[in-house]
Amino acid sequence: IGRHENLLAETTIRSDKIRWLEPQMGEPVQHYLMQMESIQRAVNREFFLGLFEYEAHFACYEKGAFYKKHLDAFKENVTRRLTTVLYLNDEWAPQDGGELVIYDLDDNQLATVAPQGGRLVVFLSEQFPHEVLPTHKERISIAGWFRVNGVRDNFLDIAS
Fold first, then answer.
1. Residue 9 has what pLDDT?
2. Can you tell me the distance from the alpha carbon of 142 to that of 149, in angstroms, rounded to the nearest whole number?
3. Is pLDDT above 90 for 157?
4. What is the sign of the dihedral through the CA atoms of 124, 115, 108 and 76?
C-alpha cells in the first residue's frame, strides 16, 4: 500500500500480487493501452476531466487473496481521477468469490461486481471506496487509473 517513500507491504490490507504494465511487454499490452487512450480522449471530450495519463498493473489474486476497503486516491497526491478494472478470467462462478464491492462515501454498498472475463468497471477514484472480497480461485485483472497533471491539482488546491 502507499506510494514511493510511503510504500509498505501490508498483507493484512491487501494480498494480491501486481506487475505494472509497460508498452515493451508486447502487442497485447500495447493494444490495451491504446484502447485506454481512446477512452481517455472520449472522457475528456465529453466530461472535461483533463485526464493526462494512464497507469495500470496486472493484479493476481491467488486463492484466499483480498483487498480491504479503500479509495484509490492518495491523500498526499490526488491525481488519480478514474479507476478502471478489466477482468481477465475466462470463467467465473458465484462460488469463486473475489467480487468487487463498491460503496459511496457514506459507506452504503452500491454494487457487487463479479470478475467476469472481459468486463470493464470504471468509477471515480476519489468518490467510491471499494474492496475485493476473498477469492476461492485465482482471479486476474488489470487495475488502472486515469490521472490528471499534478500541477493542475496543486493549482486547484490553492484556488479552493
1. 56
2. 22
3. no
4. negative
Burial class (CB in 10 A: 0-12, 13-18, 19+), 30: middle
Give the separation between CA 116 and CA 99, rounded to whole angstroms: 9
Q: Give the three-class secondary structure for 25.
A: helix
**CB-CB neighbours of 107 under 10 Å:** 8
* Joined grid coordinates for residue 77: 497526491
Question: Which grid coordinates belong to 58?
Answer: 496486472
Alpha carbons 151 and 134: distance in angstroms, whole number: 38
**Residue 151 binned pLDDT confidence (cut-offs 50, 70, 90):** very low
Residue carrying the nine cell digits 479552493: 160
Encode burial over 86-95: b for 16+ CB neighbours within 10 A, e otherwise.
bbebeebeee
Model confidence at 154, pLDDT cuts 50, 70, 90, reads: very low
Three cell numbers at 11? 498483507
C-alpha cell at 160: 479552493
Could you read off the pLDDT of 19-54 as tens digits, one per residue? Answer: 999 999 999 999 999 999 999 999 999 999 999 999
Could you tell me how far CA 83 lies from the centroid of its own chain? 4
